[in-house]
Amino acid sequence: MDDNKKEILNGVQNQIASFDQKASILLSVVGIIFAIALSFLDVFHTDHFTNQSDCFKIWYYVLFIIFIIVTAFSIFSFAMVILPRKHHVKTKYPNYYKDIVQMTEAELEEAISKYSEKSKLIIEQIKINSGICEKKHKWIFSGILTLIPFVSIIIVLTIMTIFA
After folding, report:
1. 108-164 pLDDT, tens per residue?
2. Can you give the pTM of this predicted structure?
3. What is the residue-wise DSSP string for the chain?
C-alpha cells in the first residue's frame, strides 16, 4: 500500500516538473519572439508609416499596445508556473529543501524515518503537491491561452508592416 502512495506522489511530482519545463520553454519562446517583435518600433519612425492614413496609424498603435499587454500577461503567467511558492505548512518534510536546510542532522534522520514509516505524511505530501500542481496548471493554461492573441497580433502587425 505504501508503494502505491509513493508512486502517486512521484507521479504528481513528475507532473510539477513537466509543467515547469513547459513553462520554461514557452517563456523563452515568448521572450525571443517579443525581442524580435520590438523591431516593429522602428516602423513608427519610417516615412512609409508617417505617410499612412490616420486610421492605419491608430490601428497599428492600438494593436501594438495590445500586443505589449498580452506579452506581459503571457510572460507573467509562465513565470508564475516556475517561481517557487512559500511553504505554508508547519510540518517539516524531509523532501522539501527549505525544511532540510533548517534541520540538524539528527532532526533530518528522525524526519526521514517518520516519513518512511508513516503513510499519513506521504498522503499529506500528495495533497500539498497536488495543490501545487493545480496552481501550475492554471497558470500554464492561462499563458497558453494568451499565445493565441500573441501570435495573431504578430501576424497582423507583420502583414500591416509589409503590405501597407
Report:
1. 777 777 766 666 777 888 888 898 899 999 999 999 999 999 999 999 988 988 887
2. 0.78
3. -HHHHHHHHHHHHHHHHHHHHHHHHHHHHHHHHHHHHGGGGGGGGSHHHHTS-HHHHHHHHHHHHHHHHHHHHHHHHHHHHHSPPP---SS--TTSHHHHHHS-HHHHHHHHHHHHH-HHHHHHHHHHHHHHHHHHHHHHHHHHHHHHHHHHHHHHHHHHHHH-
